[in-house]
Each structure stands twice: as C-alpha cells, then as structure tokens.
Amino acid sequence: MDARTQRETWPPGSGEMAGRLWAHDWAASPLGPPEAWPEELKAVVSLMLASPLVSSIAVGPERVLLYNNAAARLYGDRHPGALGRPLPETWPEAYATVAHLYDRAFAGEAVRVPAQPLDVSREGGEVFEVYLTPVQGEDGRVLAVHMTGFEVGARLPAEAALRESEARQAFLLRLADALRPLGDAVAIQAEAARVLGEQLGASRVAYYEVDGESYVHRGRLQAGRAVPCGTPPRGVVRPRTA
C-alpha cells in the first residue's frame, strides 16, 4: 500500500489533528513516518483521534507528543507547535511535576492522577481527572503512554457538598447515640459538649444558661476533663441588655 492510499484509510477521520498528524514532517523525529509506526501505536492513535475526551500520547523515551482535537483546544498558543515535540520540552515546568507519573506508566503501571487544572494555555483552567495507560508493543515492552482526561470541575462542588452533608449526618447520629442512654439534664449537657468538642477539635467547650443580664455557667470541658461549674471562664463577658 503506497503512502497516498494509506492516507485515505489512516489516520481515520477528517478532523484537524488527523490532517496535521499526517502532514507533519516526521523526517527528523525518532518516530519516523506514520506509515512505519508499529500497529499497536497506530491503533491507539486512531482511538485518540476519535475520542471526544482530552487525549494525548507520549511516545518512546523522548516522550514525543501526539494529541487530539480536544487537547489542542487546551494548548493555546503552543498548538500546533507541540505536535511531534518531546513533552518535557513543550511544557518543562508542568512536566516536572508529573514526570514521575509518566515514569511509572512507562514502567508498565496504569496511573490515575487526581483532579487538577489541565488547561496549559492560561492561569487556572478546567479541572480534569487524568489516567495514564501504558501501550505495549508486539514484544511486550511499553512503547507509549496514552493520557485521557475527564473534565470534573462541574462535579467538584457537588461532591464537596455531599461530603459535608454526610459528615454532618454522621456527627448527628454519633451525638444521638451518645445522648440516648442518658436521662439527667446535666449529664446530657456535659456529654453533648464533649461530643461537640471532639467534632470541632476544640480543647475547651462551655455551656451556659442565659436569662437577661444574668447567666449561670453550667459546665465546661477543658482538654477532656470537667471544670467546676458556677464560675465563668476568664475572658467571657456577661451579656447586657441595650
């Protein structure tokens, strides 16, 4: 199959990056021309180009970068110059923070990278959860690492709210369990203060009864021990009416 015929069948699709990938001058690249690439690499490149997700491939010890249309959108003015260049040279500062993760992936480990900004075209950016997947050649050695990014920024606030709600419900359940066997009001107050102090990580917890200008110190816990009632702790101001 000659180069023209192969271009009609691979890489698939008519998107920007499929065209750029084929038209790129690979003569000086360690990858060589696409028609000579291993079938395993061509297969994952086809998947990458067809994916609507942010996706890229780092190939060989040089980490030569290939990427799809969705990734190109994030690369800003580094696109299209990033295509075919070593990943460490394209984003030296950013790559330094993830180089050890790529090393693990090139050693054969599938790596999950927790949610973080991935938009390299500006400060901040969209938040992605990233997966690095080794791509093995016919001989079983890892010849590339396929990166796939899932945009999760929209779901993070909802997840944080859910965790907060679950923590609050767990505390209320623990408080109810602690108070259920108690019948004495003073014991209930003391136990409630203790549980609340543990929840808040507070070393001192106090409770009072307030009536107009007067109040009575009913109990206080300090560093896990009870403090005698009747005398307000130092620094507490008596409530006053207007």
**Count of discrete structural domains:** 2
What is the mean predicted local confidence, pLDDT? 80
The radius of gyration is: 31 Å
Number of helices: 8
Distance between the termini: 94 Å
Write a brief caption for the model.
InterPro entries: PAS-like_dom_sf (IPR035965), PAS_4 (IPR013656). The protein has 242 residues and is of the alpha+beta class.
Structural summary, described in words:
The chain folds into two domains: 3-151, Beta-Lactamase (2-Layer Sandwich), CATH 3.30.450.20; 156-227, no CATH class. The chain is 37% helix and 24% strand. The protein is α+β, with helices and mostly antiparallel strands. The strands form two sheets. A five-stranded antiparallel β-sheet has the order 2-1-5-4-3, sandwiched between helices. Helix 7 (156-179) packs antiparallel against helix 8. The N and C termini lie far apart (94 Å).
Give me the secondary-structure topology.
Layout: H1 3-7, H2 16-23, H3 39-50, E1 54-59, E2 64-67, H4 69-74, H5 87-90, H6 92-106, E3 111-117, E4 127-136, E5 142-151, H7 156-179, H8 185-200, E6 204-211, E7 214-222, E8 225-227
Antiparallel strand pairs: 1-2, 1-5, 3-4, 4-5, 6-7, 7-8
Helix pairs in contact: 7-8
